[in-house]
Design a protein that fits this description.
There is one protein chain. By secondary structure, the chain is of the alpha+beta class. Strands 3, 5, 6, 7, 8, 9 and 11 form a seven-stranded antiparallel β-sheet that branches. Strands 22, 23, 24, 25, 26, 27 and 28 form a seven-stranded mixed β-sheet that branches. Strands 12-13-14-21-16-19 form a six-stranded antiparallel β-sheet, with no helix packed on it. Strand 17 and strand 18 form a beta hairpin. Helix 17 packs across helix 20. The longest helix is centred in the middle third of the chain and has 20 residues. It is globular.
């Protein structure tokens, strides 16, 4: 039941049967609803009844980016859409929600490594298991991936020998196993899919001991996000999914299996999907998912009682599921002659349309609608008649305007995060959760809301006072407890944010879907709570003030001690440093640390109003402020070695050196990271694609190839996790430095801290200058002569920036293109990056994150929207600082710089 181009449903309209896709295409706004038509342009979901009388294939579905890339690649290769070996039938993802109507058994998501190892003992015992297969150890998802891939690559004869041995041993004890044992399904799947009279075994059997076995009872559900390897084994479910037919198979099928593409799509992280019980709402039960395209609910229909249904703002499909084929179902949409059918049937309901349904026996109504419109109160979720703005994840946590981060919104997101931790086993009743925040005026109120969420989730609040983000994260990792930081980092004071940490450190991109699903469930609870019982007034403020406990200083002490233990005593003795305090949350802690290390620290520029400092965008005005501080300090105290600072939450450093004339010289964070990595003697480098290419020039000359990731600490952390090395480090273009392993230097140890940190790059650089007996600025003069600059413009509509990047990104899975592959893209970009602006011909373009353009004269211009603010950035690299500065100036000039020209162009293109 849907309108996918491969096999759309048919529908009867005015006594004529047509394709539902054609009917909708004739009047999309009227039949889908304005919002749905503008957002998707088609019915965004597929709705089906799935009956598994025997095990179905093991399969996985791609996410949106993977689908778009794969579909374009196969189109470019002229692979027919119906070719058996084609992987991608469209450019959409295929997350799905299933609700059982009988007992359903399925396998989905990987078990923990220890469980897999225990299960595989049945396979590894005996002589049939090859000795050269990768072992299972504590390597996490990569360990599982490596072994799983090796099993898929085994010769058929080896597959036969292993499964022959396993099946023979299990068959001898068959009476010991039932449907709740994974061993039972090894026998069932082998019996079903072995070919040639049992002579050829299906290697899909190997997946059964790897995957979690799930038993859904009637009207229980499960949500399967993209990347989840799964197979339905036996039973009947209602299935609702994004509008896609993209399926990659892993076994238990005679159909095409593309092992390489499969391994790119599957999420090998341990942890299967959770069983979801419907949430009661009036006479209906709702299933909460993070999907935007669909929502699902059901409710019972009583025999000979009329049910009147009114749709919301978007189209819906109703499925009336009857106990037998003789049940009489009458649907009245207001026409003179109601239609009567027999047995289960479905109805397409346009927006704001009413229909009456009557059955002569008890039945069940399943309702599919766009997004959360499946809730009986159709349309977007509202709180007492208003529709609050919800926080969204960017590259570094949740962000939003402080007017949108009400007590209610902060509470909902924090409590959803804590529920997610319960689901993954990272927290339980009584767990201590640490909280902290930056110096913004709105921070204390938001911390209080977070603290109340912790209490109401029956956990313990530990308030560590105002503390740098890395200090809070380090405290949490050290004590194996979650933490929540309230900070907007470098963004203006009228905004703020919330950053979540598990007991092991930052939440990663793989956690976001689970967190959002839990947040959605909490949101519905709070929005549906009656006024008399709610903790919040109509504006989302607490009716009774939420208090914070007394601040605990253990976080600051632990963080400071980390550096005192690693750096030699009094190692900065003789250095005179200006620390620009402004409103940085670490302004006192860092000054005290530097003095403990022997530095002569002059603290200046303290502000009681919040100052937004972006260490990727140091403006001329900001440099002038730093110069004035240096000049004043030099007049009063003598020669200065450096002027340093951090951003608002003290996880991004600001480092400058002083040249021979007393001029303050800013050092960009990506270059600063090179000095720090050298100081730590790193043997593994992970950086985002936006970093100055000086990093590549420097380390490749030493035989070390940096790993490039998307922008954002979660991506850098994932890159470090996957890398090999004894001293694994990473950093961002803003200078925030991460360590992915415990590092030893001259007999002293530095514990890992896989989150952005400002203190380590500051103290490491200062000590490196001491050891080299040179001014700080000379450390950077020794590096390859490449200069960088970053700048941004505000009020750049997010939808427009996304459309711009999409328009400039070709349909290819390649991370980089050059030469003839550039095609018209070179001409398009050349209209803006022109010769009279000093740009040469385009040499190549990288698409890892945004659009990074390499010009033949060595210039680099990298376009990328902000992850969680209406901003568009340009990162520039050039052979001179003047050229890098000029590139940024030309890009961000108002009202007619390069970025605004691109905005005008893409708006015109989109309108056309």
């Amino acid at each position: 039941m849907g309108a996918h181009p491969e096999l759309p449903a048919t529908a009867t309209l005015n006594n004529e049967t047509k394709s539902l896709r054609d009917i909708i295409a004739a009047a999309p706004t009227a039949l889908l609803g304005k919002q749905c038509a503008e957002t998707y342009g088609e019915l965004p979901f597929l709705f089906k009844v799935l009956c598994a009388g025997k095990p179905l294939s093991i399969q996985v579905h791609p996410d949106k980016q993977q689908a778009a890339t794969g579909f374009a690649r196969e189109n470019a290769a002229d692979i027919p859409i119906d070719a058996p070996h084609r992987n991608y039938k469209d450019d959409n993802h295929k997350c799905e929600m299933s609700v059982a109507v009988t007992d359903m058994y399925l396998v989905a998501g990987f078990r923990p490594i220890a469980e897999i190892a225990q299960n595989l003992k049945l396979f590894t015992s005996g002589s049939t298991w090859p000795d050269n297969l990768p072992p299972l150890n504590d390597g996490g998802a990569d360990t599982i991936r490596n072994l799983f891939a090796a099993l898929l690559a085994l010769p058929q004869g080896t597959v036969n020998a292993i499964i022959d041995n396993v099946v023979a041993r299990l068959a001898a004890d068959r009476d010991l196993y039932n449907v709740d044992d994974w061993q039972y399904w090894v026998l069932e799947t082998d019996a079903e899919f072995a070919q040639d009279g049992g002579e050829t075994r299906d290697r899909g059997v190997f997946a059964i001991p790897f995957l979690q076995l799930i038993h859904l009872k009637p009207l229980q559900g499960v949500y399967l996000p993209a990347g989840t390897l799964h197979a339905y084994l036996h039973g009947n479910v209602i299935e609702l999914m994004a509008n896609s037919n993209n399926v990659l198979r892993s076994g238990l099928t005679p159909k095409h299996i593309d092992v390489d593409e499969l391994l790119n799509i599957v999420d090998f992280a341990a942890g299967g999907p959770k069983v979801i019980d419907g949430r009661k709402h009036g006479n209906a039960w709702l299933f909460d998912t993070p999907a935007d395209e669909f929502g699902l609910s059901y409710q019972p229909l009583t025999a000979n009682s009329e049910y009147t249904h009114t749709s919301g703002d978007n189209a819906e499909i109703l499925l009336i599921l009857t106990p037998d084929a003789n049940t009489e179902v009458t649907v009245n949409n207001g026409s003179p002659a109601p239609e009567t059918r027999h047995g289960s049937t479905s109805v397409f309901v346009p927006p704001e349309t009413a229909c009456a349904i009557h059955t002569d026996t008890d039945a069940t109504l399943f309702r599919a609608a766009t997004g959360h419109a499946a809730t009986p109160t159709a349309g977007a979720a509202t709180f007492r008649g208003s529709q609050p703005t919800t926080l969204k994840f960017g590259t570094s946590g949740l962000r939003g305007l402080i007017t949108d981060i009400t007590d209610l919104e902060a509470y909902i997101n924090a409590r959803g995060f804590l529920r997610y931790l319960r689901e993954i086993g990272d927290a339980q009743t009584g767990t201590t959760v640490s909280v902290s925040g930056d110096m913004r005026p709105s921070t204390e109120r938001i911390i209080a809301a977070v603290a109340q969420a912790i209490r109401n989730e029956e956990m313990q609040v530990q308030y560590l006072g105002r503390l740098p983000t890395p200090a809070l994260t380090f405290h949490g990792i050290h004590h194996s407890q979650p933490s929540v930081m309230v900070t907007g980092s470098h963004i203006p004071y009228d905004r703020n944010g919330i950053k979540f940490n598990k007991s092991t450190g930052e939440v990663l991109k793989s956690d976001e879907a689970g967190i959002l699903a839990a947040v959605a469930a909490v949101r519905r609870e709070e929005y549906e709570c009656t006024d008399g019982l709610s903790k919040f007034d109509d504006d989302g403020a607490f009716r009774e003030t939420a208090d914070l406990p007394a601040a605990n200083g253990s976080g600051a002490m632990l963080y400071t001690q980390r550096y005192l233990d690693f750096l030699p005593s009094q190692c900065l003795s003789g250095r005179r440093i200006v620390f620009y305090q402004h409103s940085a949350v670490g302004r006192d802690l860092i000054v005290e640390l530097l003095r403990a290390l022997g530095a002569d620290v002059i603290a200046m520029g303290r502000s009681e109003e919040f100052v937004a400092i972006d260490t990727e965008d140091i403006t001329d005005d900001r440099l002038q402020t730093l110069q004035e501080l240096a000049d004043e300090a030099a007049r009063e105290h003598g020669a200065i070695d450096a002027v340093i600072s951090t951003d608002g939450d003290s996880d991004r450093p600001l480092m400058t050196g002083i040249d021979e004339k007393g001029k303050v010289c800013f050092c960009g964070g990506d270059i600063l990271g090179v000095v720090v990595a050298d100081y730590l003697r790193a043997d593994s480098i992970t950086i985002p694609i936006s970093a100055n290419d000086l990093v590549d020039l420097h380390f490749t000359a030493r035989g070390l190839q940096p790993l490039k990731t998307q922008i954002g600490s979660p991506y850098v952390i994932a890159g470090m996790d996957a890398a090999e090395g004894d001293a694994k480090v990473g950093w961002e273009a803003n200078g925030g430095f991460l360590t992915g392993s415990r590092i030893q230097r001259d007999g002293l140890f530095l514990d890992a801290l896989p989150t952005r940190d400002a203190v380590l790059p500051l103290v490491a650089t200062l000590h490196a200058a001491v050891e080299a007996e040179v001014p700080v600025i000379d450390l950077f003069r020794r590096l390859p002569p490449r200069c960088s600059k970053a700048g941004l413009i505000d009020n750049f509509d997010t939808a427009v920036s996304k459309a711009l990047i999409a328009r400039l990104t070709p349909n290819t899975d390649a991370e980089e293109i050059a030469g003839s592959e550039l095609g018209n893209l070179s001409e398009t970009l050349g209209r803006f990056f022109t010769a009279d602006r000093g740009f040469a011909a385009i040499d190549r373009i990288n698409f890892i994150d945004g659009v990074r353009v390499f010009f033949c004269n060595g210039d680099i211009a990298h376009l990328r929207p902000s992850g969680n603010a209406p901003q568009l950035r340009l990162y520039a690299c050039a052979d001179t600082q003047d050229r890098a500065d000029a590139m940024v100036s030309m890009a961000i000039a108002e009202p007619d710089g390069i970025l605004r020209e691109l905005e005008t162009w893409i708006r015109s293109e989109t309108a056309g």
